[in-house]
Amino acid sequence: xxxxxxxxxxxxxxxxxxxxxxxxxxxxxxxxxxxxxxxxxxxxxxxxxxxxxxxxxxxxxxxxxxxxxxxxxxxxxxxxxxxxxxxxxxxxxxxxxxxxxxxxxxxxxxxxxxxxxxxxxxxxxxxxxxxxxxxxxxxxxxxxxxxxxxxxxxxxxxxxxxxxxxxxxxxxxxxxxxxxxxxxxxxxxxxxxxxxxxxxxxxxxxxxxxxxxxxxxxxxxxxxxxxxxxxxxxxxxxxxxxxxxxxxxxxxxxxxxxxxxxxxxxxxxxxxxxxxxx
Length: 278
Prior knowledge:
Blueprint: E1 2-10, E2 15-23, H1 62-71, H2 74-94, H3 101-121, H4 125-136, H5 144-150, H6 157-184, H7 192-210, H8 213-218, H9 220-250, H10 260-265, H11 268-273
Antiparallel strand pairs: 1-2
Helix pairs in contact: 2-3, 2-6, 3-6, 6-7, 7-9
Keywords: Membrane, Transmembrane, Transmembrane helix
Region (Disordered): 30-54
Transmembrane segments: 74-95, 101-122, 157-180, 192-215, 227-246
């Protein structure tokens, strides 16, 4: 061990200070040892060969297999059933012979509210978990065909998208009827009602466009952003629009107009959208 004494001037204090530097020297020795050993152990294990079972032949034509498992899978079948049922109702309403706009507006509003109600409830946590719990109650001893059908509950998204697209279709008709009604001056006399209705329709269309599989896959973050924030905005715009429509309808009875709250709860759309708060 070496010790070194030195005096240096402290620039900050202006005096001399003693610095003791201690240097330690160590010597290290290295040890090396080598040992070589070699052992050869040979294990002779018999190779297990399994007889390859032949793949069963395909029972259906290629186009049928494509339609069943890809083109028209369970998700798309549920979507098609829901959408085509609503489309049939829309065509039936348009060809029913009712020429009055006042007759078409309640049907369009109720159909849109009913579809949006189902589309939201099928994604609601309590409803979603309840459906899965019911399907899980089926014992393993149940027939395989029944359990295969219940396992398709995972494709419930077809109900969500089918009702959402169908509800948007009905809301397009409702928007057209409200705008035409405002132009004719039959019931709606203020432009604020068609403005909020068109704004709500634009929000629905934006959500539908970003929910398309191709756009959703490529711009998934944008899809999540629009689906949530546009959905929350649609709640606010919807309730404003619903209150305005209820107020417009109740004022048609110029003699004794009923209170706004009574007119509001009489609209089926009020109960269809109240599930947002649960």
